């Protein structure tokens, strides 16, 4: 066996072995490649570009020595199974020194990380393009300013749940990170319209913006985003932004014709006519629409959504209590109509009956998930008695806590 390995090693150059390794798609096969001999292990280690680890400083140093080509490092912690103290600022010092070529770093839910760690990363990772520090609750503008100053090629920044940051960070991002495309700010309660206006002074190419549960965000900020980033904007999430009204919807309709994902759940100042105007403007682009708890939405606008957004794959109309079966009658008006809808959430709709569900099933043959919880006139038994047939691969949720989250649904909203 050793003689056979020697013959192979003499015949193949490092470049040729790298070519063989690149053809192996499964992680198990790539790991098996490294078990052949020390040379193959070295090649496998240096070619590895992504690494997920749960390690302290000593182990991280060893990993840095072995996996010198890593570009994507995931140190995130699970919300359900975290360990104490988890990733610390000391670990980040090792990361900055040992992985200088890093492009992607995830520190999601690493609660021990502070501004000191961010300063180290800002000074040591000049090529960083994506950073996720969501729910790193100790972080403030000071630490993230160091990131913006040192990582000027930043394209993606996730700050979900970082409640201590303020509008001041947007000035620095605007001046230093002009290539920023994706920004997650959900739950950052201290940011305002003024901050968003400052952001787009320099960041003109935002593709995805999440300001859900940011209570100080309203029409002024949304209008400014729509005005500056309209050619690039694909995803906008405004969940529970109670100050967002019809003005924002009108602005999006006029400017953002490429929008694919829109979340306006809980925006209770949004009414039918502006929404219909938006739907007609986005009829060929919109893929996912979440408008749960939009209490002024009626059958009129929902019917417009279903009839015009032919490429819609995910829709959430939960708790829109004015919606009835009549909203679905228009589905069959166009001969040959076929919906691409895969995910439909319609829990807690007191006016929906078996008749409405039957109409949906008649024209929506691609459904993979349907949420029918808390519908007083629709139960699993009543659907069976009515002879309703859901698609074979469709998961139907008739009961359970309304706060429960389905991972597949999260992919769309």
UniProtKB/TrEMBL annotation:
It comes from Iris pallida. This is F-box/LRR-repeat protein 4. The keyword Cell inner membrane does not apply. Residues 100-171, 172-388 form the F-box/LRR-repeat protein 15-like leucin rich repeat domain. GO terms for cellular component: cytoplasm. SMART domains: LRR_CC. Keywords: Ubl conjugation pathway. Residues 12-49 form the COI1 F-box domain. The keyword NAD does not apply. It holds the Pfam family F-box_5. It comes from the Eukaryota.
């Amino acid at each position: 066996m050793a003689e056979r390995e020697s013959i192979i090693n003499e015949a193949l150059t490092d470049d040729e072995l790298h070519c063989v390794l690149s053809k192996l798609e499964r992680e198990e096969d790539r790991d098996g490649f490294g078990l052949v001999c020390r040379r193959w292990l070295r090649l496998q280690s240096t070619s590895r570009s992504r690494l997920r680890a749960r390690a302290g400083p000593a182990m991280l140093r060893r990993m840095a020595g072995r996996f010198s080509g890593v570009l994507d490092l995931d140190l995130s912690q699970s919300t359900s199974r975290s360990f104490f103290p988890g990733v610390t600022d000391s670990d980040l010092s090792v990361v900055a020194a040992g992985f200088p070529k890093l492009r992607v770093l995830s520190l999601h839910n690493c609660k021990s990380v502070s501004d000191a760690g961010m300063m180290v990363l800002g000074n040591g990772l000049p090529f960083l393009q994506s950073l996720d520090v969501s729910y790193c609750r100790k972080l403030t503008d000071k630490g993230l300013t160091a990131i913006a100053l040192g990582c000027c090629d930043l394209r993606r920044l996730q700050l979900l749940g970082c409640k201590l940051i303020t509008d001041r960070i947007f000035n620095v991002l605007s001046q230093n990170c002009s290539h920023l495309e994706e920004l997650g700010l959900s739950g950052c309660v201290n940011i305002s319209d003024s901050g968003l206006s400052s952001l787009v002074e320099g960041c003109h190419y935002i593709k995805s913006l999440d300001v859900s549960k940011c209570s100080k965000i309203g029409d002024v900020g949304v209008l400014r985003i729509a005005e500056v980033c309209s050619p690039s904007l694909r995803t906008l999430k405004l969940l529970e932004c109670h100050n967002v009204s019809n003005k924002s919807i009108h602005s999006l309709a006029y400017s953002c014709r490429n929008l694919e994902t829109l979340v306006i759940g809980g925006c209770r100042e949004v009414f039918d006519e502006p929404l219909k105007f938006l739907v007609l403007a986005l009829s060929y682009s919109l893929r996912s629409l979440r408008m749960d708890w939009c209490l002024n939405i009626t059958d009129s606008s929902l019917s417009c959504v279903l009839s015009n957004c032919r490429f819609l794959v995910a829709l959430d109309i939960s708790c829109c209590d004015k919606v009835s079966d009549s909203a679905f009658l228009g589905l069959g008006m166009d001969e040959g109509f076929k919906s691409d809808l895969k995910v439909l959430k319609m829990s807690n709709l007191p006016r929906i009956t078996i008749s409405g569900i039957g109409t949906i099933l008649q024209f929506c043959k691609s459904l993979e998930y349907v949420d029918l919880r808390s519908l007083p006139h629709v139960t699993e038994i009543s659907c069976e008695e009515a002879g309703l047939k859901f698609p074979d691969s469709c998961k139907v949720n008739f009961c359970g806590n309304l706060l429960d989250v389905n991972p597949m649904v999260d992919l769309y909203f």
